[in-house]
Amino acid sequence: MVFIREYKPQDRKGVINVCWRTGYMGEPAEGRFDDRYLFGLLFCLYYVDYEPENCYVAVEEQNGQVIGYILSSFNSEKQEIQFRKKMIRKIIRRAFLYTLWRYPKTFRVFWYFKKIFQEEPKIPNEKGLFAPYPAHFHIDILPKYHRQGIGTQLMTNLENHFKNHKVEGVHLGTSERNIKAIAFYQKLGYSVIYEGPSGFGMWPDAPEVKSLVFAKRFN
Description:
Elements: E1 2-6, H1 12-22, H2 36-43, H3 45-50, E2 55-60, E3 66-73, H4 76-102, H5 104-119, H6 126-130, E4 135-141, H7 150-164, E5 169-175, H8 179-187, E6 191-196, E7 211-217
Parallel strand pairs: 4-5
Antiparallel strand pairs: 1-2, 2-3, 3-4, 5-7, 6-7
Helix pairs in contact: 1-2, 2-4, 4-5
């Protein structure tokens, strides 16, 4: 049996594992990016370390394993600034003092990420995106647990959390390749507000994959 609860510090390793096992456009990053901890620094650890009150996990009751999560921020504009302040040094330190020597192939992918992040085209009218849809989230569930209603439960918890704190709108990004996720978001009332080259082209073996931005208002 799986249950949903608020994130706790002991869930940190489990969140990293789920992120790494679902981080290649819904598929495992294994073989493409083998430093799990660096992957976590890039994509999930900001939320659990600095905004844990906005994070929920799905946990297997029998063994306590984290099998899914939903991580969010109320204020995307502020989160971008805080990510740069709090995470970039940690990412660079890990990459050069550990990943470069232990996982040279992963370091090359990381360096490609860095290049793409620096040159990444921005979503048109990004300020306009943040005004009606200030919050954002990331949701991932291990494939074994798909189609069991866990994603819907995570989304319900988070949307109630947003509404209780008067958050009026939320957005999220995904890949055009992530077909299951697209159908899931549409079923829950999310609409595509942007489609373009930004984001998932960071993977060296998927330079032409487009990003989709979904959004939803709560009033």
